[in-house]
Amino acid sequence: MKVAECTTILVGKKASLDGSTLIARSEDGGREILPESFKVVLPEDQPRHYKSVLTGCEVELPGEPLRYTSVPDAHGKYGVWAAAGINEENVAMTATETITTNARIQGIDPLLVDDGLGEEDFVTLTLPYIHSAREGVLRVGELLAKYGTYEMNGMAFSDKDEIWYLETIGGHHWAARRIPDDAYVVAPNRFNIDEFDFESPDFMASADLQAIIADYKLNPDFEGYNLRHIFGSATVKDTHYNNPRAWYVQHYFDPNSQTTPLDQDQPFIVHADRKISVDDIMFLMASHYQNTPYDVYGDQGTSAEKKRFRPIGINRNFETHILQIRNDVPAGLAGVQWLGFGPNTFNAMVPFYTNIVDTPASFRDTGSKFNLQSIFWLNKLMSQLGDTNFKLYGELESAFEQKTVAACYQVQHQTDKLARELQGAQLQACLTKANQEMADLTFANTVELLGKMVEEGHAHMQLKYDLLD
């Protein structure tokens, strides 16, 4: 079975720099390289009868699906794994974040065995059928109640106004909360939702969830409901695999934060000391505890400290997306899917418009085998070379990323102005052309960087013997 462990960051519209809603996630795998691709699913290509590859679970789907973008696995041997996208109604979804559970809830509503739905399925079964973030929560809730799940999942939904984060509980239950407009969230691979108000319209859950908590005496707190305490974990693994990632992000946005990397009770809803940009999220998704003793590439820590905590930027990043719904442009331009393939420490993210019917070949036609015409495989090659000597190659990568993202911003600004008055097929053609331009410049800059790394690394090979004559 495919291994998937991720990091999620959510930013409300009043917390973001430009008033956008932002939901982001790195799709991280295991030891096996999992090639990813970027595609548009047209209504005529969406199945009407769906069958999961991993479990064989079968679902009849509604008619009249919406067009949507997706980031599926290139080979498909584990199923679709559409991961994330934005549909034609400018509703975004990312799924899923693998999270934790505990024996108490598993004894009441156990995860399914060889049945039900999982990360492979949720985007395909949800995103084409929703017209708001809130509808996304309700759609997944219905699927969980009817079909169940074999794994613990966190997922996020957004539209131009709202962001919702949902976590599955046991085999058939769930809880979700709306992210306040002025707040942000970082969610590593643990159960994340903490304070929960069953009476507020900003919270939703399975109809019987509150009764289950009472009937089975699951609440350890004297007052209120903290779902992480009730349904989540507080393990030794959390203290080195999950909690440090949340700590690093929270300290980045508030250096005066009093939490530590080991804290089990780091808050779910957090407020930054400034407005949050897409560039902030890109940095954090590539981060490896810079300027701390825990940076594997740094010179502050001991060998043990450098290996102590799991970073966000890691060799197992296979694709990362930032789904942006903008509020300062016409609806036809509002959806932007920032996308980067491979380890984030060595890539550049591209802001693709999502009101399109096709994607650039270098991002679409990845293939399951190494292919130098694919940006995914180029980035994998570059990251594995860069990892051999980060001090030597790190500045080259930083310059490449700034150059590439700046050029993409220029294309985006020009296109926003050019396309404001366009509609329908003319608008889609304009946005498709802009996407191609950004993909081409990113590909060219990546090849250029790879060449510079080869040239710079030539004199630093260990297999050498200097001529003295």
TrEMBL record:
Under catalytic activity, the entry for this protein gives: an L-aminoacyl-L-amino acid + H2O = 2 an L-alpha-amino acid
**The entry's keywords:** Dipeptidase, Hydrolase, Protease
Main enzyme class:
hydrolase
Q: Which InterPro entries match?
A: C69_dipept_A-like, Peptidase_C69
UniProt EC number? 3.4.-.-
One GO process term, biological-process aspect: proteolysis
Q: What domain of life does the UniProt record list for this protein's source? A: Bacteria
UniProt-recorded Gene Ontology molecular function terms? cysteine-type exopeptidase activity; dipeptidase activity
Does this entry carry the keyword Transmembrane?
no
- A Pfam family (short name) is Peptidase_C69
Q: Does the keyword Protease apply?
A: yes
Q: Which family does it belong to?
A: Belongs to the peptidase C69 family.
Record's protein name: Dipeptidase
